[in-house]
């Protein structure tokens, strides 16, 4: 029997918050979302990859509209710079289907699906705690509201997480990720990379790190074939974190094949960001009446491509738990049993991938197809990842 008549508060209105709001609405809850930002968030995004099967399920269940643009890719191509020259050497290919999304378009689709909730924009939550009644209290500058369930979807600095795991902070990995998007005009003089990216996503290995490249929809109302080039480049910076564009351009000129270096080093960026890589996972994803979702419950290293994926799966799990449980407490315990170990698994997988691709990166120039397949199997060590479907995983 489904729990009914719930009041649910959601702290955070980003992808995780909107997805959890949709879950609550679909399960019949009265939902209120608190968003720190006063404006819309659709201009914030870079690139996101999700499994095709998850995208199909989200469309089928109404979380996403079928018209939301995506950029599917079916194959992963591994490249490095050829020894003694500036050309690219392809050393492996693997079937690895992804549905690439623009962060802003994904948020906009979820926000539309969550229109049935009350959204308080520009109202930061100052604290979350237990009310004397045993319900959850959400406090803002405008006052306090109590709820049967409060979802912490407030990111890696989550206030809600401090109720469940006081003092828990992310653990730094010791290296940095640079993210950016470039218009396809940056590839105009490089037809081979553009042709490759039309159906594949690329891992480009270099000494001490690697880069991931893929196309995403532009997201500004342009045509369905208009794309941006999204990338994430991982390396250990010298000393303190350098400026965003400057150091990544240096890496490109120093280590990339000439065409890829030209794209990254001299392209006009649509967006850039840079941050140290870190991870954490909460010991419990829920403790009634509180529940954690997305990065509030677990920050994984980006190698797993599971940030948004996990948040969306969290939402599907919450909806199922609310529909199949007789009380809010039972639903949250159901959620905790499923999502707590999954966050821990993803954090461990991210650490393993980080060690293998950055901290102890192989000699990419010496790799071939057989070596890559063996390296993937050894790195995963039996763990599953939708990015490595050819390496004996589900």
Automatic annotation (TrEMBL):
Domain FAD-binding: start-end pairs: 10-348
Cleavable signal peptide: none
Keywords, alphabetical: Monooxygenase, Oxidoreductase
Gene Ontology MF: a single term: monooxygenase activity
Short name of any one Pfam family annotated for the protein: FAD_binding_3
Entry-linked PANTHER family: MONOOXYGENASE-LIKE, OS06G0597600 PROTEIN
The protein, known as: FAD-dependent monooxygenase
């Amino acid at each position: 029997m489904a729990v009914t008549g719930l009041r649910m508060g959601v702290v955070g209105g980003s992808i995780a918050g909107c997805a959890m709001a949709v879950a609550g609405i679909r399960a019949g809850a009265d939902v209120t979302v608190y968003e720190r930002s006063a404006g819309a968030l659709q201009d914030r995004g870079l690139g996101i990859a999700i499994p095709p099967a998850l995208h199909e399920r989200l469309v089928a269940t109404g979380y996403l509209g079928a018209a939301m643009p995506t950029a599917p890719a079916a194959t992963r191509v591994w490249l490095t710079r050829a020894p003694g020259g500036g050309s690219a050497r392809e050393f492996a290919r693997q079937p690895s289907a992804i549905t690439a999304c623009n962060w802003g378009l994904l948020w906009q689709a979820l926000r539309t699906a969550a229109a049935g909730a009350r959204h308080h924009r520009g109202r930061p939550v100052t604290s979350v705690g237990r009310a004397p009644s045993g319900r959850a209290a959400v406090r803002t500058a405008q006052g306090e509201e109590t709820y049967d369930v409060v979802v912490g979807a407030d990111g890696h600095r989550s206030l809600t997480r401090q109720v469940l795991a006081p003092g828990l902070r992310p653990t730094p990995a010791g290296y940095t990720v640079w993210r950016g998007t470039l218009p396809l005009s940056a590839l105009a003089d490089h037809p081979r990379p553009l042709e490759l990216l039309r159906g594949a996503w690329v891992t480009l290995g270099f000494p001490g790190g690697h880069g991931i490249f893929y196309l995403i929809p532009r997201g500004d109302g342009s045509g369905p074939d208009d794309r941006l080039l999204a990338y994430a480049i991982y390396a250990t910076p010298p000393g303190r974190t350098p400026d965003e564009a400057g150091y990544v351009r240096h890496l490109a000129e120093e280590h990339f094949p000439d065409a890829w270096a030209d794209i990254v080093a001299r392209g006009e960026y649509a967006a850039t960001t840079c941050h140290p890589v870190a991870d954490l996972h909460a010991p419990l994803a829920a403790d009634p009446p509180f529940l954690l979702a997305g990065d509030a419950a677990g920050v994984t290293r980006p190698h797993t491509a599971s940030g948004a994926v996990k948040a969306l799966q969290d939402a599907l799990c919450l909806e199922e738990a609310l529909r199949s449980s007789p009380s809010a407490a039972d639903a949250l315990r159901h959620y905790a049993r499923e999502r707590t170990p999954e966050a821990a698994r993803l954090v461990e997988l991210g650490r393993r991938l980080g060690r293998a691709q950055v901290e102890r990166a192989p000699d990419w120039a010496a790799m071939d197809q057989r070596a890559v397949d063996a390296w993937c199997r050894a790195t995963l060590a039996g763990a599953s990842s939708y990015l490595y479907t050819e390496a004996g995983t589900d």
